[in-house]
Amino acid sequence: MGKEHLIIFDTTLRDGEQSPGASMTRDEKFRIARQLEKMKVDVIEAGFPAASNGDFEAVRAVAEVIKDSTVAALARAFDKDVEPALEAIKPARSGRIHTFIATSAIHMEKKLRMTPDEVLADARNAVHFARNGIDNVEFSCEDAGRSDIDFLCRIIEAVFKEGASVINIPDTVGYNVPEQFADRIHKLRERIPNSDKVTWSVHCHNDLGLAVANSLAAVMAGARQVECTINGLGERAGNASLEEIVMAVRTRQDIFPCETRIDATQIVSASRLVSGITGFPVQPNKAIVGANAFAHEAGIHQDGVLKHRETYEIMRAEDVGWNANKMVLGKHSGRTAFKARLQELGIEVESEQVLNAAFTRFKELADKKHEIFDEDLHALMSDDVVTPEHEYYRLISSGFRSETGETPYAQVILAVGTGDEQHAEARGSGPVDAVFKAIESIGCSGTDLLLYSVNAITTGTDAQGEVTVRLAKAGRVVNGQGADTDIIVASAKAYLNALNKLHAGPGRVNPQGGT
Ligand code: KIV
Ligand code: ZN
Question: What predicted TM-score, i.e. pTM, was given to this entire model?
Answer without folding.
Answer: 0.86
